[in-house]
Amino acid sequence: MAEKHVSLADQAYETIRTNILNLTYPPGMQLTEAKLTADLNMSRNPVRTAIKMLQAEGLIVTDYYKSMTVKEITEKDIREIYQLRELLEGNAFQLIFTSGRYEEYSYRIEEKIVRMCAAAGDIYQWEVADTNMHLEIVSVYENDRINRIYENNLSELIRMGQNSVKNGMDIVKTNENLKTMVQYMRENNYEKAYAILKADHFTIGKETALG
């Protein structure tokens, strides 16, 4: 079977997108075609195609004067995203217990936490793993529309999460707290398990993201 061909435009898209998500290109940074073609060592055509894809995704914005910048993350963005997370994940976490699936999900979530622990030295990879842990929680709904809401906001979640870490959120402590949360899940102790999720990921996460 032939390997799937990846176009230069797709390669450019993936590289620029990763640079935006891992904050190599931070929020508000001005970008130009010349800079991106130089950074990627590519011609302008695939880079232009990649830029259009990222503009459609909302990660690159263009002003009236055609100046391109990486989309800013505003205080309003952070408050709205964390409100969305608390509403959807809070209810999902409760559903895990009321549906009697707390032991099953303790193992599913633990698998994601193992990946978070393995990525503790890389803020970007840790945040990707953390986001996957949150996606595991909402998967209990078995609702494609909710999954799409999360997927549509993944870029913002990953960038906001890195801001939280840079502003003082302790990765090692968070990992240890999540391990404790899993133990409470296995004991069918919803109150103590949810208290950890709420404190670390809805309260401290939001406050540190806001700076």
TrEMBL record:
The keyword Transcription regulation applies. CDD domains: WHTH_GntR (cd07377). PROSITE patterns: HTH_GNTR. It comes from the Bacteria. It holds the Pfam family GntR. Gene3D superfamilies: GntR ligand-binding domain-like, Winged helix-like DNA-binding domain superfamily/Winged helix DNA-binding domain. Residues 6-73 form the HTH gntR-type domain. The keyword Transcription regulation applies. GO terms for molecular function: DNA binding; DNA-binding transcription factor activity. PANTHER family: GLUCONATE OPERON TRANSCRIPTIONAL REPRESSOR, TRANSCRIPTIONAL REGULATOR, GNTR FAMILY. Keywords: DNA-binding, Transcription, Transcription regulation. This is GntR family transcriptional regulator. It comes from Faecalicatena orotica. InterPro entries: GntR_C (IPR011711), TF_FadR/GntR_C (IPR008920), Tscrpt_reg_HTH_GntR (IPR000524), WH-like_DNA-bd_sf (IPR036388), WH_DNA-bd_sf (IPR036390).
